[in-house]
Amino acid sequence: MTNRIHGCNEMKRQLEMTCDLHSDLFECADRLVLYNARFDEYGIIIHDGGNSYSVIQFCPWCGKKLPNSKRDLWFDTLKASGYDNPAKQKIPMEFTTDEWYRRQRKRNKRARW
User: Fold this and answer.
1) In what order do the strands lie in the sheet with 53-56?
2) Rounded to 5°, angle at Cα 32 from 31 and 33
3) Same domain, yes or no, for 81 and 45?
4) Of the candidates 14, 30, 26, which has an alpha carbon nearest to the alpha carbon of residue 52?
5) Structure confidence by residue, pLDDT tens digits, 59-103
6) CB-CB contact of 91 with 78 (8 Å)
7) Rounded to an integer, what distance in angstroms lies between the CA atom of residue 96 and that of residue 66?
8) How many domains does the chain have?
């Protein structure tokens, strides 16, 4: 799974940052942003002891437009496949990563030919 970097060098630096003290990025106060590949979305980490983040639409450093989140599409796609409660159901492995929309994009490209 490749990490698509949007924005500028500072965004790239932040996303690739590792911490010698914290294995969990939500525990490290130096980590400011994250990329969630499953939903193709970026967020600012909320350092409150949990795993929350606020989705952002623009790079905080350069202002470049970031991709639209695929979160709603993820839920809609799963629901159309019969998974109406993915938190409690065992969902296909491809939906735990970005594979679900990458495969969908490949199928759509082939269908156009």
Assistant:
1) 33-36, 41-45, 53-56
2) 105
3) no
4) 26
5) 999 999 999 999 999 999 999 999 999 999 999 999 999 999 988
6) yes
7) 21
8) 2
